[in-house]
Design a protein that fits this description.
With 416 residues, this protein is mainly alpha-helical. Helices cover 84% and strands 0% of the residues. The protein is built from 20 helices and no strands. Helix 2 crosses helix 5. The longest helix has 37 residues, at 243-279.
Length: 416
């Protein structure tokens, strides 16, 4: 077990470093934007970033997940299927979806929807997603290259914001600069790969494109449901709450998002070991599951304790000049949320190992329905002219994670 844990933490370090780097640079942007434009404008920037994340799921169309999954299973059949979907086909699909999204954003801007300017500002983030070399780096076992690419891209974007954006009226440029930094670094990677002969481009046929759209449809649908479960609250708050409440909740959402990404990296690190352990039998898997859950619970309780103790200094750092007391209270209220997320990781992983994708989609559909009801409750309060206070969306997020854990636990097939 000790050797297994060593391998898990080595993989986690490599994958988690990308998420930690992204989170750290994103958190550095928050006080910069708040100090130059205010917390309300920062809320719009983070909301646009969340919308871009939603559309990036469409851009990826499941390819960033299906590739690593095939490599981890080391399945000859799956590797053959990947070979029939060359990088040129995947890039062609991403470019097509990006074009449709760009047209949608421009139409919204043409209809004079105020927030559309922030959506246009997020387009460079989607360009970076089109060029993201995740599959290439994972497929060729070059995780160190992927770490450096993400760091250099994020750092370039941060420097562009720091030195070239000052106008509070042009806050939509923040996401544009961050996306531009990533896109530039990713584009350089593709150029170097092509010049060194490691890539071979092929013309993607329409038949192959249609086949890929059909094959990955269920996967992208499931991914969209999961993302909407996490983001629907943010969109609702933007519609029914004050700008200050949106700004505070957007910071909480970004903190939880960052911790969730770290947990997803941990899940990916566990996955390779879990594949072999699950084949050894039910009892071996249950022991492994119990050990990992205890490890997660202990680590996440420490994280919750740190957030409770450090809430005030963290609020001062993230939002200097605004209501740090309210923000620190929101951070304390949200401190336990990652614990519920972490305790559910092995539930999701178990369904994947069993290839019970229908159950996965069914669970996500039920959870999404419950989240819609919870968001409708906020709309009801808004229609009744009851003020939406800062703690309400944070509590709603806590309820969402609790419901998610309950649904997955209830639908597990516990051995007798």
């Amino acid at each position: 077990m000790i050797e297994t844990l060593k391998n898990i933490f080595l993989n986690f370090f490599r994958l988690g470093l990308i998420q930690i780097c992204s989170l750290a640079l994103q958190l550095l942007l928050i006080p910069l934007v708040v100090s130059r434009a205010g917390i309300a404008e920062n809320g719009k920037v983070l909301t646009a970033l969340s919308v871009a994340g939603l559309f990036s799921i469409l851009l990826n169309y499941g390819t960033s997940q299906s590739g690593p999954l095939a490599l981890s299973e080391k399945s000859v059949a799956t590797e053959t299927a990947l070979n029939r979907s060359p990088l040129s086909l995947l890039l062609a699909l991403r470019v097509l979806v990006f074009f449709l999204i760009a047209v949608l954003f421009m139409v919204l801007y043409w209809l004079r929807i105020p927030f559309a300017i922030f959506l246009l500002g997020a387009l460079p983030m989607l360009v970076a997603e089109v060029l993201n070399p995740y599959i290439v780096c994972i497929g060729t076992n070059r995780l160190n290259v992927l770490v450096w690419l993400n760091f250099l891209g994020r750092a370039t974007g941060f420097l562009l914001v720091y030195f070239y954006w000052f106008d509070p009226a042009g806050t939509f440029w923040v996401n544009a600069y961050v996306g531009a930094g990533l896109a530039i670094v990713f584009l350089l990677f593709w150029v170097v790969e092509f010049l060194q002969g490691r890539l071979r481009w092929e013309v993607a046929s329409l038949a192959d494109l249609r086949r890929l759209l059909k094959t990955n449809f269920s996967l992208v649908t499931s991914n969209l449901l999961v993302y909407l479960q996490q983001s629907l609250v943010l969109y609702t708050i933007g519609a029914v709450a004050s700008a200050s409440v949106l700004g505070i909740y957007a910071i909480i959402d970004k903190l939880i998002w960052g911790l969730r990404m770290v947990l997803i990296s941990f899940s990916g690190a566990v996955f390779a070991s879990a594949l072999d352990i699950y084949k050894e039998g039910q009892q071996r898997w249950l022991r492994f599951r119990s050990q990992i859950n205890r490890l997660l619970a202990g680590g996440l309780l420490v994280v919750a304790l740190v957030l409770l103790i450090m809430a005030s200094p963290l609020a001062d750092f993230l939002a200097s000049g605004v209501d740090q007391r309210t923000l620190s209270m929101a951070i304390r209220l949200a401190a336990v949320i990652p614990l519920f997320t972490g305790l559910n990781l092995l539930n999701v992983l178990e369904l994947i190992l069993k290839k019970e994708f229908a159950a996965l989609n069914r669970n996500n559909s039920w959870i999404f329905f419950m989240v819609c009801l919870l968001c409708f409750s906020l709309w009801s309060l808004f229609l009744l002219h009851i003020e939406i206070l800062f703690w309400m969306p944070v509590l709603l997020l806590l309820l969402t994670e609790s419901i998610t854990l309950f649904v997955y636990e209830k639908n597990r097939h516990h051995p007798r």
